[in-house]
Protein: FtsK/SpoIIIE domain-containing protein
Amino acid sequence: MTNLSVWLEATGAVAGAGGLGYAKVRAPRVYWSLVGMPVTWGRFVLSYRSTMDVCGLTVQPSGLRAFMTRNVARREVQPVPPKIRRVRGTSTGLRVTLRLPAGLEPADLIATSERLRHAWGVYSVTVAETKPGYVELRMTGYDVLRRVRMPRKARPRDMVVPVALREDGTAFERDYRKAPMALTLGANHSGKSMYQRNLIKGLAQLPVALVGIDCKRGVEQTAYVPRLSALATTPDESASLLAVLVAEMEDRFDQLRQHGVSDMWELPAELRPVPVVVLVDEVAELFLISAKKDEERRERIVTALIRLAQMARSVGIYLEICGQRFGSDLGKGATMLRAQLTGRVVHRVNDKQTAEMGLNDVAPDAVPVASLIPMERPGTAVAADSSGGWSKIRTPDTPRDEVAAICREFAHLVPDFPALKPFRPYVPAAMPAVSPPLGKARPVTS
Ligand SMILES: Nc1ncnc2c1ncn2[C@@H]1O[C@H](COP(=O)(O)OP(=O)(O)OP(=O)(O)O)[C@@H](O)[C@H]1O
Structure:
């Protein structure tokens, strides 16, 4: 009854809005649920066998099965497609779980995904291996990255934060325990700050210490100060803050040794130190030197970043570094640091070389995809990690005020962290909706 009334309400809405054609363009989610999904489901079921046959995705049945078909059923033995284990409709498409017969592998389906897409008239077909011998065909009924809506079930938990949507309709999650150190690259206005904003939105709700380094005088991160344990807005402050984090890392190593474990997560919860996520906006500012005297500071910053990137994972200190480019042109230490940042997100770039800096060592076949991200789609990126897998993603368009409000709501989660106290930003009683003008953005207290 409830389903019927929801359906009637929705169809009424569609009719009121000017019909199905209008809904297809303006409300693709509603159109998919009401029209696209039943049509595609039917088409899929009716044409499954013949489609798999013409796509070369069938194999000869096993000896016993062939014998039974020939001698018991008295039918001609036909090649068989993968067995359908489950078909499930979602708000963005259809998910089909297949059991692969001997002789077929996931790569065979990946190679034909374009033909499957045409055969079933869907927007995209992605193939994911879910466990050995099983694959999931993820079909999307429309371009889910045009207006991003995160799946309702995607919630921050443990050290996992949903941050964007993949083109197959699933959530792209930043998992700090799987890829502890990450690099986000992209040209001006490509959506890097939006990516960090979505990250902060999720991280703010978890029991972690958030440390900001924003040498663009804090223009982006000042809005989040109620939830930050520390904020540095100049290279000098950043150098001091990073030195404190390196000392904290060393203290935590001593603690691990005392308890005879090699990873913070092996400690009982009551002894485990709070995880720390260090968010660096525009890393080039930390590498720049305008006078000879800055060289020594730069050296300290780069050495601290490399040490943290190499070792801090096991003590729960994670780096999230963001910049326009990240290559040898930044100077000594840059490529060494980059090699340690194994989580990669590359937004629109101005040249292929920048895409190569971000992806060549982890997912070289994703370089052309990153090089072709259009300007009209800010927030679109290629996300890859050292496992060689990659996917095209887009962040939701989350207003800064919304994230600032979440930071205020979860301010009570700022952990007690004496070493970071000198860097704790001043939190005004009423935070302005947007950052204060340049030059006044850095209220510091001790
Ligand atoms: N996912 C998105 N959906 C819609 N609009 C977006 C998205 N991501 C970013 N934008 C818009 O694109 C513009 C640039 O975004 P953002 O400031 O995040 O880019 P940036 O790479 O950090 O730029 P800069 O290097 O200049 O700081 C902003 O107006 C933002 O609102």
Residues 58 and 80 are 5 Å apart (CA to CA).
